[in-house]
Amino acid sequence: MTKGLKICGISDLKTLKYILSHQYPPKFVGFISNYKKSRRFVEYEKLKVLTNVEKKNTYFVSVLVNPNDEMLDLMKNLNFDYYQLYDVNPKRTKVIKEKYKVKIITALTIKNQKDVNEYKNYLKIADIILFDGKGYEKSIGFNHNLLNPVPISINKMIAGNIKIEDIPSFKNKDYFIDLSGCLEDEDGKKDFKKINKLLNFDIKNEN
Fold first, then answer.
1. What pLDDT score was predicted for residue 103?
2. pLDDT at 139 over 70
């Protein structure tokens, strides 16, 4: 079993309610909050509706790419547990965490070992370090062996073109697993059958 699952890129109420009411709901659900290049981007007014549901034991994550103060002031009014920050340096990350009293997932995009080693600059700030591919909205993978030197004690999440069938390979890695694209149909919409397969697959592979 993984440390926990994150389903990212949720943009409609029907899908969100399906996920939250599932017998084995994920640990996190992510919403693309300010990155308009992504087809999964959600406008603020819609975010208000989505984050107003009963989330039970699932954490809501606002995915933000280099957010400005205006965007952050909007997000503070919504029911988010974590901000997942891309392209935000350690100093500003600390300011955001302290000002908005929110937990932080620092997202690092990985191509080489130097990119991985950036996690050391966020150890006293981020609650979770997310190692992602370089593709942003294109979901590009990377060599996961680059993470082998990262201590087990670090609270880690991994993303980047991960498929449901890849999950057993992370069984002993103590990672949170972040999936999005592999749960979509040909039109880019979340597929309930694939989501159900994922959530049941993780439980079945816990031993």
1. 98
2. no
Euclidean distance between CA atoms 136 and 65, whole angstroms:
9
Tell me the β-bridge partners of 84: 63, 105
CA angle, residues 21, 4, 37, in degrees to nearest 5: 80
- Full set of structural domains in the chain with CATH: 4-204 (3.20.20.70)
CB atoms closer than 10 angstroms to residue 36: 10
Q: Is the pLDDT of residue 81 over 80?
A: yes
pLDDT of the residue at 135: 65
Q: How far is 161 from 140, CA to CA, in rounded Å?
A: 5
CB 119 within 8 A of CB 157: no
Tokens of 7: 């389903």
pLDDT at 129 over 70: yes
Of 125, 131, 123, the C-alpha closest to 157 is: 131
CB-based burial label for 161 (10 Å; 0-12, 13-18, 19+)? middle
Residue ranges in 30-188 assigned as alpha helix (H): 44-50, 69-75, 90-100, 113-116
Cβ atoms within 10 Å, residue 101: 7
pLDDT of residue 204: 56
Q: How far is CA 174 from CA 5, 25, 111, in A?
A: 11, 19, 21
Arithmetic mean of pLDDT, 47-68? 96
